[in-house]
Amino acid sequence: MKQLTIISLSNLKKDPRVKRQINYLKTFYSIRCVGFTDPEIDGVEFIDVSIPFNKLKLAFSYLNLLVGRYNQFYWKQKEIQSALNQLKDLQSDLFIANDIDVLPLCLELARSNAAKIIFDAHEFSPLEHNDSFLWRLLFKNYKTKLILKYASKANLMLTVCDGIAKKYTTDFGLNPMVITNAANYVDVPIKHTNSDKIRLIHHGIAMPTRKIENMIEMMDFVDERFELELMLVHSKSAYYNKLQEMANTRKNVKFIAPVATDDIITFTSNYDIGIYLLEPTNFNNHFALPNKLFEFIQARLTIAIGPSPEMAKIVKENNLGIVTEDFEPKTMALALNKLTQNDINHYKENAANAAKRLNSEENMQQLKKEIDKLLS
């Protein structure tokens, strides 16, 4: 059985895209995964490359970025050194490098046994947090140089949507295959709306760039049928606290504790509408096609979004809900107010049909075909 090594500098237990790769491919290959947290998947070897956080050492290492010593910065990262030391003597037929941050590592590891490389870029890394001055100062040129130097050396490149694929082609002459963040198919029943209380759900990471406060402000303008529940994972407690304070002043907004990643779809299927009002605060937010959209579909929810082009295309093509003309909280509230019980139930039924098509199965089959070509 061929040996695949999947590397992602992330919490593998909570990384849906990488977990889908591991879970599907483990049936056909011997899988070794490398990252920060054991995904606890039967039959899969895990190598932990996490390093205790040291703020002072990290800040000092950024000096290399400031003066353009990108190669020194990359290879001196403790996580990269840990991975290199633990993996250098292990055999692998193919590496999947999740994000540009691990592609140079995978190319170095592949040299000893001529292994093939798949580079899953996920999103457009040169503009990842382009709304942040500090990020632009430290990382924009660094990420750009990594793409220029290494991306074309991969045997296959992936990304999450058409808009980002076109950007890689325009800016770098690359030709990524699109593998969306479509969730696994989950067989849950449609739960029709039968009451005067319409429950909205938003789940995800509490990040300032996502402007979650807009969805809270929206609740000032909806009619009394609607209530919003936020299920947020927070990395920046100050922002999370701000959102909680906003919610506490409103009777129709409340926070709920996050559930395990694998339970999101079945849990949220008890709601009526999945909502995501994502301002285009940076390039990747503009072209976002996130896990949560596909999780809304699998949960058989009506979907309510702003005019984010990649999400809007799927919602409109499959008649899954409402797409507002702008990202203003009041605009979304007025659109929600126009929904009837029949409208919501109709969109839920459409989501049930779409769930059979817009799931990870076709994506993973495509990926396996490409892997088999590379390994033949």
Textual characterization of the structure:
Helix content is 43%, strand content 17%. The protein has a seven-stranded parallel sheet, sandwiched between helices. The chain has a six-stranded parallel sheet with strand order 10-9-8-11-12-13, sandwiched between helices. The model has no long low-confidence stretch (mean pLDDT 95). Helix 2 (55-66) runs antiparallel to helix 3 (70-76). It has two domains: 3-182 and 360-375, Glycogen Phosphorylase B (Rossmann fold, 3-Layer(aba) Sandwich); 198-355, Glycogen Phosphorylase B (Rossmann fold, 3-Layer(aba) Sandwich). With 376 residues, the chain is of the alpha/beta class.
Draw up the topology in text.
Layout (H helix, E strand, L loop, with lengths): L2 E5 L8 H10 L4 E6 L9 E4 L6 H12 L3 H7 L1 H10 L6 E5 L4 H8 L5 E5 L12 H18 L5 E4 L2 H11 L4 E2 L19 E9 L6 H6 L7 E9 L2 H12 L4 E3 L8 H5 L4 E4 L6 H4 L4 H8 L3 E4 L3 H9 L3 E3 L5 H9 L3 H15 L4 H16 L1
Parallel strand pairs: 1-2, 1-4, 2-3, 4-5, 5-6, 6-7, 8-9, 8-11, 9-10, 11-12, 12-13
Helix pairs in contact: 2-3, 12-15
Q: Please give the CATH architecture of the largest domain.
A: 3-Layer(aba) Sandwich
User: Could you describe the largest sheet, including whether it forms a barrel?
Assistant: 7 strands, parallel
Please provide the ordered H/E string of secondary-structure elements: EHEEHHHEHEHEHEEHEHEHEHHEHEHHH
Q: Structural class, judged by helices and strands?
A: alpha/beta
Gap from first CA to last CA: 12 Å
The CATH topology assignment of the largest domain is Rossmann fold
